[in-house]
Fold each of these.
Amino acid sequence: MPRRGGGSGGGPGGGSGGGGFQFNVASGAILAGVLVVGIGIGTGISSTTQGDQGNIASSQQLDMAVPDPEFCRQWGASAFVMDIELYTTMNPSTSFVTQPSLKPGCVIRRENWSVLQKEGAVSAEQMRQCKQRMNTFAYIGSVKDKPVVRCVYQTDISENKFLTKGVADDTVGITPEADQF
């Protein structure tokens, strides 16, 4: 079947056609401007995200996620609290675990326990028992509104796999405060 109209084909001798996109300096400038504006908007949106969408990307965001950020920062350190339960049966011997829930919490330094007692969060007897076991206190919720307070153990700092190792495999960068919170 012969062609009619002699349109421009894509093959040899078909002509250049006038409907194609021609790249010139103006087109390049517009594309570059769109790219810069897009990057600017994306950066602005991501830098103003406060972590209220389930993402905590820095210790500052974690500090602000606890109910009493100033109190926690002054007397201890903010923390992730993972609430999880483990069930183990004997016959058959198997284990079950609940879905963990993640909450913001605060760990109080040992020398600052008295502030928890002043707030009415712990009693003298709780302080005595926790001190006997050489532990410290941590809590979930607001210290001013009946927080859930627990006597917690600190893990062995040498088992922390996030620490930088030295040349002779010595652990470097551990402060006495980190070793004995």
Note: The beta strands are 76-83, 86-90, 93-97, 101-108, 136-140, 148-152.
Amino acid sequence: MTTVTRSWAMAIPARRALTRRHLGIGLRLSLLGLSAFVVLFPFLWVLAASLKPPVELNRPSLWGFTPTMANWVEVWLGSPFSRYFLNSIVVGVLTVGISLLVGAPAAYAFSRFRTGGTWLRFLILAAQMLPPALFIIPFFLMAYYTGLLDTVWAVAAAHLTFIAPLVTWFLIGFFEDVPRDLEEQAMVDGCTRWQAFLRVVLPAARPGLGAAGLFAFIMSWNEMFYALMLAGGHSKTLPVAIAGYWTFRGVELGKMSVAILSAALPVLVASFFVQRFLIRGLGGGAIKG
């Protein structure tokens, strides 16, 4: 009898611990589910609006309507939206390519030679401290006199003024993670400093280059102010095109929802694969060296 009582007494704390563990897991899952719902709800709402017929758009409901693809057909086939989509891709690719071409050697110089000291690392971000309106008149005049006004080239040039410094800052941390021994060994084997950088350092920092490129593309993809001021007509980019669905007759909510989803989904999918590199790179330029 004593043995049975003792075994039962020992089992009670174990059951309580197991119950607390299950409650903790359930609470964490509930919080994660609530967080996911809060994050995904706006996308679900926009998706529902893109599938609603015009007569249903003023009804605040995610269901209870007959879905239609009319808004998608009108946006993609009945308007020049696909051209605006292509313009954003062209601007983004130009901005990313030039930013990496300039930013990678600059970041390498900061990480290896401490060029300019710590103060210069922060000075390259000076463009972020000034309002874009301060630069728009010089950009507008330069684009006008060079014949680039209302073209994607003018927009890409304006984007480089604030994206290229951020890419440089972003890459410093990744180059700091590349062991110096690798390039020193390459130079012992006969490579110049430049060849060691191209053949050894850049391949080793490839994840950082990819993350920096995506980061630059997202910033260019979402930028509206310079695109609004320097481009128009057939050279519009997506943010300007999306804002264009707010007309004097009111907001064309169905079409705007299609445009928003079309602009958001590619970036969301790409960001999912490099999010850990984005976080590491943003802090790397500040805490390294």
Note: DSSP finds 13 helices and two strands in the chain.
Amino acid sequence: MPVLLIAFIIGTIAWTGVSVWLSARQIAHVRQHRDRVPADFADSVPLEDHRKAADYTVARERLAGIGTLVDLGVTLGWVLGGISLLYGALAAWMPASLGRGVAFVVAMAAIGALLHLPLTLYETFAIEHRFGFNRTTLRTFIADRFKGWVIALVIQVPLLFACLWVMRSFSGLWWLWTWLGLLGVMVAAPTVYVRLIAPLFNRFAPLENPSLRARIENLLARCGFRASGLFTMDASRRSSHGNAYFIGFGRTKRIVLFDTLLDRSTDAEVEAIVAHELGHFHHHHVLFGLLRSAVITFAGLAAFGWLCKQDWLLPSFGIPWRDDALALVVCFFLASLVGPPLTLAGNWLSRRNEFQADDYARKHAGAAPMISALLKLSRDNASTLTPDPLYTLVHYSHPPVPLRVQHLREGQDAALEPVG
């Protein structure tokens, strides 16, 4: 077995082992604190809700652990012969062409989606249903998956054709042209999603609550923020989880509030949540995130550009054919080994950004409404208040609610301290 393949298998198994170990820590830590609400929240979080959050976290983590092992099995299956088997089957009836490469990548993606479908079904109709969150019918679930697959084909197949054509036509610098194309896609994606894709899954309507609308518009004016619209989304069709988000650039920026959030929150709490999202824009987190993604993509594609043209790459994985699509797939497998460290760094930056956005919300909407909103979101989404610290460090893109509440309270106390 080639050395590169052995190293890849060892690395993949090692990362999987770390992931399973962290998952076991999370489950043990949450279960250990299941029957006791943290002292700072004993007066605001009922023990019943705390236990529900613990049980929900454990159930989801166990399923995620199964998913991790499935991912390992699928990956090993592909690199230990599955890639050659699938490509050989396509080569038997398709001539060598860009179309064969595209068909190969699409077939791999379809097989992966089908293998994970049982886990998604179990999550939606077993775990989410058991804890009272699921409102999705089987018909809606099937329709969502079908629309998602169609959209993926419509968008990704032309992009894949273009990438493989550039690889064939521009040889050495194909990766640079590909990066420029992907950069354009990343910039256009939010607008395309808002205008064309999101309405296929949910209904969006202008916010009708006049007092809340006036309150948020006043907040936007104070913060010097312009949005193309303030909308509600019928998230309750599929789930009882509450949330809100901003999306888009320039004149296409939209503020979207889940109807489930509005049903359970006061106007002051919704204002605080919107102020938090405004904080992300104030600190240019969205722009910096785009730039960070552009830099990582540039570096990754530059590495791909070198690897894809090495004669030893495909034979190192036991692949007897030469095809740019095969080389790309192998590069993506190799890139998965550097994914965990990048995710760790990205999560650290994201948690820092969340604290900055919380500070902005405290300044413009007050600490008390933001704390109240966080506790309600934690309760309504059954988010545990007692995650394992090491698991949090690796996996959490948002700080745990207790740390965010503590940060807000400390900021409030500092603001009240007399000067001099």
Note: The beta strands are 204-206, 229-233, 244-247, 254-258.
Amino acid sequence: MVELRTLSPESVPSALEMAKRYRMLNEPHEAESICLDILAVKPDHQDALITLLLALTDNFANELNPSYQMALEVAQRLSDQYCKAYYTGIIYERRAKAHLGQGGPGSGTVAYSWFAKALESFDQALKGCDPGNQDAVLRWNSCARILNSRPDVKPSDDEPSEMFLDSYETPH
């Protein structure tokens, strides 16, 4: 096994900028690796945790497992309750979009359940946010527009939507 090298604490700001750049270049694995290096030096670095969470969710379309579970664990490490709710909502929203992207029978119903969870999280974030921070409103509206414009994204006619989450809660 190849031993990892430790990042110097002084290089954390530039490493974080590099991780953000790799996300913009659609290279989430590179961003994830850099964030893990930062967190090895500064385990509670909030910006690195957020960038790691977003990089993990960037992978949902390609590999839901283990990225989904890891993203939820990272969200729990965020120190601010608003951030926990907001970024958990992003995890659910991106999971919903991943299910839509996969398509297939029932994908709209599964996606609906995840969008519903995202809306709950964004609603929770709105209860504790600064009036000047409307990020959760923007995410809420994005989800609502998908729900309002896609007739295939709807709850099941046969069962409550919450039942669909049970069989899909474990990433596949």
Note: The chain has a mean pLDDT of 91.
